[in-house]
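User: Teach me something about this protein's shape.
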Amino acid sequence: MITVFSLRSRMMLLFCTVVGILLVGWYLAFYGMLRREIRAQLDRQLVEASSPVLADLAVDPDETDVVQLNVPDEYFELLDSSGRVVAHSQNLSDRLLTLPANGTPVSQRVFETVKDEERGRLRVLLIPFRSRAGARILALAMPTRDANQARLTFRHMMLVFLPLSLALTGVVSAWYVGRTLRPIAQLTRHASQMAERVADRDRREPWQPLVVGNPHDELGRLAETFNRLFTGMDSALRQLQQFVSDASHELRTPLAILRGETELILLKPRSTEEYQRVLRAIDDELKKLSRIVEGLFTLAMADAGQLRLAREPLYLNEVLEDSCALATPLAQAKNIVIDHELKQEVFCLGDETFLRQLFLIFIENAIKYSPPKTRIRVRLEASDGLAHAQFQDEGIGISSEHLPHIFERFYRAAPASAGEAHSGGLGLAIAQAIVGAQGGSIDCQTAPGVGTTFTINLPVEPHQRCAAQAK
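Assistant: First, the predicted structure itself:
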């Protein structure tokens, strides 16, 4: 039979279990550190007590000085290289120490814990040295009863405080879990009302969130979170519907042209010139469709978080120079001059294809919305680990009501013009996706009737570090 615990019981059990494990782990860890510290302190006492005796034996050939030692709880023995006791302190009498060095060569300082039948557990320090009489080993032992008593006292404290801590944890968890779950029933009613309202509302009207009576308590904050969630979902659905509608509209125009041109050319035989004209028109529309589809694919990859940009070593100034050269014929067709200053070499890791596409988007947009016989200025500089690519035109500018929406898909801040098909309404959205994947940002400064300046900020690194990463 399976016992079904309530949510309150499961939360209390989980809380007490986790806290209990943490308390036990903390007590054991503290006990281990205390034990190591007590042993280390006893070892330091052994070293300090042996230092003056060792210094005296190293220079004094008379080893009978050890026999005169009679310090309480400090037992000395002097051994030869074979482990035979040569001399010992008075407090040992005839009951010598049981040492690990008996019969075993000692080449370096050794700490050991031994059990002596008369004196109990002892901590022993063995120090090999050389005196005038030859190789010797100084053994110093101290009882561990004080250290053992300290550890025993701490264990007794653990046995008392651990159950008390667990009991206190149970009381606190019962109070806290009860207070946490109290608003759940009311929140359930609120969520039910939200679901009913969303299901019955008119889809053409924006969803109205429920009014929260007290936004400062647990229920109010949680209800506000649900309100934000439903509002975000509603906004996302509306944006998706608008995007599908706009994409359908954008694709409908070139498809209608392709269909019309194809039907027209098939009505009757045409001349070679007419076939060429129609094929050129079809080629232009196919290029527009290809750009739109590629742009939608790029944005779909960015939305899914799968837009992967290569990290190859390149010079941004060279990529920007190539982009200006590619856009020059389009600018010359409108008698527009592209003035670029790209003398500073900016080295970074990036995707050359996507960066060239990014720069072309802003250059072509500047050409598109600039009147003839104007100038477009392209600048590139690097400072504080960022490269700043600036595109300044003398075009129509962007009004304040359009500015927050210019990076939305298929959004246009100005009427369509002859060159608009270069972006298909997706140019700035694609640019924002590429810059975001590169870890940068885009700034826009505009004045209607004066012009617009876009600044792309991309992270760059020193040449040496980029070269090392590229390897």
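Now, about its shape. The mean pLDDT is 76. The first helix runs from residue 7 to 59. If you'd like, I can walk through any region in more detail.
User: That's plenty for now, thanks!
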